[in-house]
Fold these 4 entries.
Entry 1:
Amino acid sequence: MQGCPATAHHHRVHLRPIRPSPILTRLAFGVLWLLHFLPLRALAAVGSFAGTIGYYLARSRRRIGRVNLALCFPHLSSRDREQLLKRHFRAFGRSVFERGIIFWGPKARIQATVCLEGIENFEALKGTPLIIFAPHFVGIDMAAARLATEYRACGMYARQSNSIADEMLRRGRNRFGNAVLFPRDEGLLPVLQAMKEGLPFLYAPDMDLGAPHSIFVPFFGVTAATTTGLSVIARVTRAKVLPLIAVQRPAGYVARMLPAWDDFPSADADADTRRMNAYIEARILEMPEQYHWLHKRFKTQPPGKPDPYAQGAPAGPEA
């Protein structure tokens, strides 16, 4: 949050973001722990209801979602985009509440909740460098947890400012000892070393990580800062790229491992990154409500282009 602009008569005021207290954080995880005992359909219903409440309460995230959908689906009416956003909040709410299964559910329940499809595509590449390319659909954590019940892989994570949440998330992602996690701020060297030692790399490169190490390529026809990491890592390690698409079902999830890409990487990182975005677009069109629309995907823009999320920019109708 920005303070008041500095003038000759005023000092700049810095407002610190409000962070949940340790007590509230523990209470939230306590609620997730209690709810994870519910049958899956009941837990899904509770999560969907919470997502509906979140749509009305999370004003800033609702606005981000509206901007994203307006940019990516300008052909849809405002009403249709708003209905899509409501469905996304319900799907996202479900995914949050169902993570209790990841944190505390037994291995057998995780495996029953998430069906692993296309594992033969993964098995065929054992012993070769491998990048498991997992775009940010709402079920990405469920898919990763399902994979970790049986297979070793490495991945990166963003440190959380809340130490309790950070510890819970890291513990939940490595309950079975198969996930080797590296903080994103440590860079790629630990990942490259782990891949050299034979670990597949679970990689989700479809977020705005800022201008460094990113190029501007279209995403649904809109300029988007996009990391070239998928191309660069595949070239350096000579790894195959195997897509992992997480699909949320009425009861449970499907972690779909699709065939590895042919002719990737090319000699052109720009073309490779465009190919990656086009691939994600195609998967989004299959289930648009399940992509993570609450992230500021288009915040970083080339010099001279405005931030579409800035105050004053159009964000769609208020509900």
Note: Residues 22-290 form one domain.
Entry 2:
Amino acid sequence: MGTTTMNITNTDLRHVLSAAGRRAASPIRPGLLPHALFVADLLARRLPYIAQDSFHGASAPAKLEALGTPVLVRSDPRGNEVEAFLRMRGGEIALVDAGYGHVSVEAAAETREAAAALAAALRAALASEPPAPERVSLAFWMRGEPGGEVRHREIEAQRLDQIAGNYSAPVRCALERLIASRAPEHGRLILWRGEPGTGKSHALRALARAWAPWCSAHFIMDPEELLGRGGAYMLDVLTWEGDDEDRWRLVILEDAGELIAADARAVTGHALSRLLNVTDGLLGQGTRTMLLITTNEPVGRLHPATRRAGRCLADIEFTPLSCEEANAWLAARGRERRVDRPTPLADLFAEAGESPVEAATVGPRSFGFARALDEHAALAR
């Protein structure tokens, strides 16, 4: 992806510095210090141009020391995340935010060309090859100040054909059709519904892997915050510049059924309106954004506006495996136990006496998004 630049004029700087002088000092959380120092320094030095870039890569503190003079470096105990404010030899400054195989940089300089050159130099020094096909990079979003904050993780993801036996025939066919699609011509909303334990989260991984060459996946950790408060968070997600210009993005809201229920407007205010506006309204125009919502709600409880023709790219109901499919699933794992009713995937793992994690060698490693978030939170503490 090419770098993007923005211009800060001297008039802008005077207004910002003047306003800053009138405000009382407010405490800054340690995690925000590198960014705060970067902004303060570019204002003090009156550097009007900022170039931004985002790419696969890594940044150890020792590597940063070879690029410039670190003013402040923040890293987690395991070295999975590093954020640093650097002063460069030519008078430019840079902010580097790296973690879990992804790097974002901001470079400030006196000219547009110098800022772009510094961002390019940082990419050349820190970039690495994209993850192996069995791993996919996901952007995890959460509400920050004032808008949204993003962190990247690489997670394991199997192909759909490797986990096809986890789904009933109708579900499997619907997933195959969806995965085979490219750059939707109509409809940007994807609905996945079904009772818990039917494999929706496993399928999300397979979809993210299959679409990775042309579409990035963005997981929203707090859907109610994204759709329920203000607009800064939403605009940050929709206008994020970490993707190549020709790539689509898939925004994932897991277990967000209350946002699209028939009584959603009464329960969550304007959240439903904002959601629909992303898919086919002004908010989504020009952003190449698709929205995927998973829910445990039955179809009768969903707001009819979400399933309108032309709005929905796919509406898939995840159902339990039939008796025949479920028993074939157990037999494939060498289990003698049999069931006499349609059975969800989670119950099959229980019948087999396995947890999904223990079954990783014969089935999909479970999940998933919730598991990745738990790991991310544990490392952040």
Note: The longest strand covers residues 135-143.
Entry 3:
Amino acid sequence: MVIFLWGLRNYREYFVDVLASFITGARFARHELNELVLPVVEADSIVASNDPATKALEAAHTMAFRHGLGASIFASQHPSFTVEDIKAFAASAFSSGNIAVLGTGIDQVKLSKLVEKSLGKIPSSSSATTSSTKYYGGETRVESSSPLQTVFIGFGTAGAPSNNLATLASHISPEPHVKWSKGISPVSEATPTGTTVQTVYLPYSDATLLGVLIQGENAADVKTAAQAAVKVLKSQVSETDAKKAIAKAKFRAASEADSRDGVVSLLGNKVFSGTDASVETALSSFDAVSSSSISSVSLLCGFA
């Protein structure tokens, strides 16, 4: 679990104390589960089951990883877990060996002192054991009542996320650089009007899912856009396109660092792996990416 400290400079000690009090003294009341949490869980599950994009990504995870990351992030509309189950999970997860604290705009020594003062008494326990993620892949079809024709084409990789994957995602992304324009990506140029193509790049601690999500009301137009996306994935990346993609990927990473979730995504796995967890190091590592290393990703994943 990664805790991100983002608050007003004069109230950092207060925020750390609040986080510590929740971790060490959360009550997990039964009425909160039944009256506040479960209705939200049910509502989220209903919305997800009726959204074709969400269903496509859920199916992609299941086919790619099967277990672990392949499990749905949405609980069933009538979950069977109890307050006692939640308390047991919290007791094993909220331990000193499973918590990392990230902070921005604060000296590391000061942050360490605050964490030691407020979180130093958290009991330690053995780290949660999970099996390494494996990539399987496959193809599936899911029925949907939505009028939108939806297709996800992509691949997954096992192991830590790489800058090559992030740069490839930027290369195939049809997102325009200028507002209201169609974009200059080969994918966007071949996409029929009324059809949308969205790049999906989901890095996890020991795996990555990368691909394109295509939606449109006309099946033929969706097929045309899908063929264009696959063609780009199979093509060798030129030096010029590689430089553009690297700059775009680096800009995207820098933009994500301005938000709480972005920092956790960018640096979270680096904390637990023991590597340098700084935004500057994360951005400078893109300098090692090249056109050949980007193209090799598609080759390894069976597209080239």
Note: The mean pLDDT is 83.
Entry 4:
Amino acid sequence: MTPLVEFRAVSKHFGGIHAVDGVSCSLHEGEVVGLLGHNGAGKSTLIKVLAGVFPPDAGEIVVRGEARSFESPAEAREAGIETIYQTLALAENLDAPANLFLGRELLTPWRTLDADRMEHEALGVISRLNPVFRDMKKPVRAMSGGQRQTVAIARALYFNARILIMDEPCAALGPAESRMVLDTIRRLKAEGIGIFLISHDMGDVFEVCDRVTVMKNGAVVDTVRVADVTEEDVLAMIILGEKRRK
């Protein structure tokens, strides 16, 4: 099966700092790949290369079998790649429909805002992610952390994202809200969406990831199937920067 995304020997340098150094890894449809490593391992730089924030200095990115070069995040979004950062980038004073269509509002034939259609469309995609979501018209600032994540994910999916990058989606969430987010990730997997998941929580990683790619000092230590390793194996790879001893 052709991967959704392949990094082929991708490198990114900032002066003498090799933030990403010859990284190769892949992501398939309906798969969650965890990107793991200490702060400074290169995970964030790698996803920013995929998201069109930074151009790679070497190597190539292949999306659905086609080599791509993104000059901006807008070009990456057009290719079906969306990033959900830990900050979520939501407008706190607006409700769910307004956030979902912020900057891409739906208009009537008279060029006025089509509020009813935006609410209907938002309800459809949000209900698909979280069937019990009930706060469509509540300002985002009054929503729980799990609900806010749902709105951010819905915004990506409505505009046909097939590749999601999720940066610490359960950070600062309580157990019930984290469960909501992990259940959402499972639903996305079932729909064939591929997800790169950055997380420091091994419990979450082992619950939803199919494979993990461990990075250290900008390079890949190894990529392993979650079913073949233990949490202790992965922690050792992160700390030591060495492949798992078999």
Note: Helices lie at 43-50, 73-78, 96-100, 115-129, 145-158, 175-190, 202-208, 231-240.
